[in-house]
């Protein structure tokens, strides 16, 4: 892959979280600019997501390590769900589940709510990524990560302007040279998916807007995937 220009990987997180999210990822891939997705193997719609992936090989599929869910309320973070046990054992379990569901290794690896930014989880995922020879989100210089396309602040405040067509076009215009991963979270009928619900449908509309595709062309940005990066 030529990295002298600007290359964009659009990766949908939370694939397998629910049927609503799966519908959003599928539509974003078929009608929009989504090129890759990250699978949550613990969630009930993971099998359906894996089946879709096998039928759509152009959608790169990575592993979205899922160690629970946290919300910010009244000035502090609260755990809605936490996966017990050492992170290494759970990561190895989820990697094995991914291979069982998908039939191959992931093309990339990241984590739900970016828990791999914590040192203990980050060290484990860095080792797994190194052993598999795949990118770990936010690590290394080969792929830059952009998380600006997100409809809430870190504390849950609404930022719907950040997932508008206009904001995405501005982001594309300012994209740096090299390979950039743009994170996204599309969904169809996911308004009740707390804590990130109706934002998913807004994201999907933006990702599928023809003006965004035109913006890629106008800015001479090559749309690619993690599988293509490996090739």
DSSP E strands, number: 9
Report the C-alpha radius of gyration, rounded. Answer: 17 Å
CATH fold-level name: TIM Barrel
Residue share in helices? 25-40%
β-strand percent reads 15-25%
**Any idea of the CATH class?**
Alpha Beta
CATH architecture: Alpha-Beta Barrel
Straight-line N-to-C gap: 8 Å
The succession of helices and strands, N to C, reads EHEHEEEHEHEHEHHEH
- Average residue-wise pLDDT: 94
What is the total domain count?
1
CATH superfamily: Glycoside hydrolase/deacetylase
Net shape: globular
Instruction: Supply the number of helical segments.
Output: 8
**Unreliable stretches covering 5 or more consecutive residues:** none
Secondary-structure-derived class: alpha/beta
What composes the largest sheet?
7 strands, parallel
Give the SSE map.
Blueprint: E1 6-15, H1 19-31, E2 36-39, H2 46-55, E3 60-65, E4 68-73, E5 76-82, H3 87-102, E6 109-111, H4 119-132, E7 143-146, H5 165-173, E8 178-184, H6 198-207, H7 210-218, E9 221-224, H8 226-230
Parallel strand pairs: 1-2, 1-8, 1-9, 2-3, 3-6, 7-8
Antiparallel strand pairs: 4-5
Keywords for this entry:
231 residues, 37% helix, globular, 7-stranded parallel beta sheet, alpha/beta, two-stranded antiparallel sheet, TIM Barrel, 9 strands
Describe what you observe in this structure.
There is one protein chain. By secondary structure, the chain is α/β, with parallel strands linked by helices. It has a single domain, classed as Glycoside hydrolase/deacetylase (TIM Barrel). 37% of the residues lie in helices and 22% in strands. The protein has eight helices and nine strands. The strands form two sheets. Strands 1, 2, 3, 6, 7, 8 and 9 form a seven-stranded parallel sheet that branches. It has a two-stranded antiparallel sheet with strand order 4-5. The chain starts with 5 loop residues before the first strand and ends with a helix. The mean pLDDT is 94.
